[in-house]
Amino acid sequence: MSNASYRDAIFSTPLDRVARFSFDEQVVACFPDMIRRSVPGYGQILGMLSLIAQRHLRHGAHVYDLGCSLGASGLALAGALEPDAFRYTGVDLSPAMAERARQTFSDECPDYAMRVEEADIRVLDYSPSGMIILNFTLQFLPPADRDALLKRLYDALEPGGVLILSEKTIDADEQDNAWRVERYHDFKRANGYSDLEISQKRTALENVLIPDTLDALHERLQQAGFPRSVTWFQYLNFASVIAFKEA
Ligand SMILES: Nc1ncnc2c1ncn2[C@@H]1O[C@H](C[S@+](CC[C@H]([NH3+])C(=O)[O-])CC(=O)[O-])[C@@H](O)[C@H]1O
Ligand SMILES: O=C(O)C(=O)Cc1ccccc1
Predict the structure, then answer these.
(1) Could you name the domain of life of the organism this protein comes from (predicted)?
(2) Which residues have CB under 6 Å of ligand 1?
């Protein structure tokens, strides 16, 4: 597959039947554009990941990036850290994503220890790690599978390790939620998406991307064993949390 990247126009023409959203070849081909125009603060979150790694990662420690897509978090780390500062494993269930992430790392950071596994993060055998990144991935798992995964990630983290959990969120209060969602649609419109694109994508994501409240995310992290978690980023209905394992 080519490494070219296109503008996201997937939902720009009327579809008779809007299929469930999936991370297929069509999405992969425009993914960098789609995620930047659709996730408020995406670039800022990636930039901060490196600063968090610089503060919290022991030299040479292992990092997991779960649901790595095209490996953007890995590239951000490689752009800020020396090659011997960390070892990276990206994991993605989508063959098209995994293949292209692998290609990107071999083209753009050949001196870094970076690998990509095509696997389901719910059944992976985890190696000990200093940092685990879940950047907009937990939201795509069935809610019933989320706690068990977080527990396994807590167990895989070394003492003093950190989990970064970024998610689209929902508000428990209906009125607050409606306001946030409307402003999110304004954000998308300002980034060039039409009302048709916004509405068809919303349909495609129904029962595929199932958001938790921010409170529920902290609750899940606590259930998993993390003694402390902090919301370090929030922009409309998108947030990122850091959870700390005891040193
Ligand atoms: N069970 C699963 N196992 C493995 N991967 C999965 C699973 N379910 C979904 N995925 C993968 O999780 C990724 C979610 S996108 C992450 C963005 C990236 N983190 C980024 O920082 O650019 C988020 C978004 O597009 O909003 C996709 O690549 C799926 O194939
Ligand atoms: O576009 C949306 O509505 C989102 O929630 C963000 C997103 C970004 C990329 C793939 C799927 C969802």
Answers:
(1) Bacteria
(2) 23, 35, 67-69, 72-73, 91-94, 97, 120-122, 135-137, 140-141
